[in-house]
Amino acid sequence: MATDLEAIGHDLAIAFTSRLESRTHRRRRTRMAALAVLAAGAFCAAAIASGIGAGLPLDPTHWSILGGGTVDDGRAEYVHAKNLADGSNSTFMVEHDAGLPAYQAFLLHERTLAAAQESSPVPVRVEQGERCTAAELTRAEVVALRTLRASFPAGTNADATKAAVDDALQGAFAGSPCRGLEYGGEQARLVYAGTEPEALLMAGAR
Q1: For 163-174, what is each residue's pLDDT tens digit?
Q2: Residue 26 contacts by C-beta under 8 Å, 6 or more apart in sequence?
Q3: Which segments of the chain have a pLDDT < 70?
Q4: What are the distances in angstroms from CA 19 to CA 23, 53, 156?
Q5: SS3 191
Q6: Which of 18, 117, 126, 160 is the most exposed place for a label (fewest CB within 10 A)?
Q7: Buried b (16+ CB within 10 A) or exposed e, 132-169
Q8: Rg (CA), the chain
Q9: What does the angle CA 48 – CA 51 – CA 53 come to, to the nearest 5 degrees?
Q10: pLDDT of 103
Q11: What's this model's pTM, rounded to 2 decimal places?
């Protein structure tokens, strides 16, 4: 888990599906991520799929499955796959975290990420530091939201705000990074974009 390869392109791309079961209660969120991988000395763009439900249905005409597994009795799943068109490798993850408190959802993500990284057929970049505590994750989301409010109008697409938020978090946690800053920044960007509800965030960041 100590792999520390130079990131080329996005360190970690995380996307959420747009299928939401309810807007009055905390919405069922199915998170899908594609890990950035380094293979044959070149970065292959992370592949993101949308509109998925339970499981990870990848089109067999586009992807060759290399392996995968489940976490927490199927609450999360991951699949390693090779793109048949260009030979690039991606790891897809889906997490069913409906009903989980924000920090428990983060811990589920960490367990899924660790399992996927451990079994990945190619090296993947791993964030530096120990896993973020609840206080550190809250602080990361606060810093991210402060940056977003100062620099972007509400509703700005989450992809467009990534660089600014990443820079702000790196500065705020310089010398003491923790594993989960990317996650916290992504949560804040999705909420600010209006893609996900405020309940996604740690209580102290709402």
Answers
A1: 999 999 999 999
A2: 98, 99, 197, 199
A3: 1-57
A4: 11, 8, 20
A5: helix
A6: 18
A7: bebebbbbbbbbbbebbeeebeeebebeebbebbbebb
A8: 16
A9: 110
A10: 96
A11: 0.72
